[in-house]
Write a structure and sequence with these properties.
Layout (H helix, E strand, L loop, with lengths): L1 H28 L9 H9 L1 H22 L8 E5 L6 E2 L1 H10 L7 H6 L4 E2 L3 H10 L3 E9 L3 H11 L9 E4 L8 H10 L1 E7 L7 H4 L4 H10 L8 E3 L7 H6 L8 H11 L3
Parallel strand pairs: 1-4, 1-6, 4-5, 6-7
Antiparallel strand pairs: 2-3
Magnesium ion binds next to loops.
Length: about 270
């Protein structure tokens, strides 16, 4: 009996030791995503008049630029416009809000969310795109959503009343390994006069931004291309996520939440 007790207590100690040694690894692997730092950004998008106003402002500028272009009768090619989807023509902040509540991080649940086709139109987007379509401008939706969500994405666009939604105008990320939109943009501009590009991420506009990964190089590329903003490129606000946020972490997606918080604090300019 005593021996059995001794053995079981030794066994118990061993199990305890193994559990203790393994626990940091386990904790890291299953660390819940503390997205508390994103709450204010999501609330700004969902609750501020300022976010709505910026969307109206972006689409009002788009209308002015399109009308100016339509007055140029020397343009012979058919006109087109290139727009990103998420946080450009529609709002996906409810997915971000859900992640905060469930302590989850992208891409968990993203495919399921997309397949529910529940994105809502951003202020001004529907009116502007229907106007452009009525003026004979071809609207292209160039998104990095993967092809698994193509049907739901088209269904979502149609349900909201966006114009010209079909397999030729909705260009998904066909190759999961290729994040760049450059090839899709080039294919469009080979056939059309591209009046405008609209997006919430610098990578929605030009290859030069895709190649700029650091905070400094993104800022430098933006300054160098300043003449394009407000004339050919129109940027919509997205404080929740994007390559601006990836650059804070030097694209290291393996950082723990604690390490990310340290990075953010270290970057603050006081
Ligand atoms: Mg986007």
């Amino acid at each position: 009996m005593v021996t059995t007790k001794r053995i079981s207590s030794r066994l118990g100690f061993l199990i305890l030791l193994i559990t203790f040694c393994a626990s940091p690894v386990l904790a890291q692997a299953s660390e819940p995503a503390d997205k508390e730092n994103e709450v204010l950004a999501i609330l700004w998008q969902q609750s501020s008049g300022e976010h709505r106003a910026l969307c109206y402002q972006a689409y009002a500028l788009a209308r002015m630029l399109l009308d100016r272009d339509l007055h140029n009768h020397r343009i012979r090619m058919r006109r087109a416009m290139i727009l990103d989807l998420d946080e450009t023509v529609w709002d996906t902040s409810s997915y971000e809000a859900m992640n905060v509540k469930l302590k989850r991080a992208y891409p968990e649940g993203w495919n399921e969310w997309m397949n529910q086709a529940r994105a809502t139109a951003l202020p001004g987007a529907l009116e502007f795109l229907n106007y452009a379509n009525s003026r004979g401008v071809r609207v292209f939706y160039v998104t990095n959503r993967k092809t698994v969500a193509k049907e739901a994405t088209e269904q979502n666009l149609k349900r909201l009343g966006f114009p010209a939604v079909n397999d030729e105008t909705v260009l998904m990320r066909d190759d999961p390994a290729v994040e760049s939109k450059t090839a899709r943009r080039k294919a469009i501009s080979a056939k059309y006069h591209v009046v405008l590009l609209m997006g919430d991420d610098l990578n929605d506009f030009d290859e030069v931004f895709e190649k700029s990964k650091t905070i400094a190089s993104r800022i430098e590329a933006t300054d160098r291309n300043r003449s394009q903003f407000g004339t050919h490129f129109i940027v919509l606000p997205n404080p929740m996520y994007g390559n601006w946020a990836n650059s804070l972490y030097e694209y290291n997606f393996k950082l723990t939440e604690h390490q990310k918080a340290e990075k953010r604090r270290g970057l603050l300019k006081d």
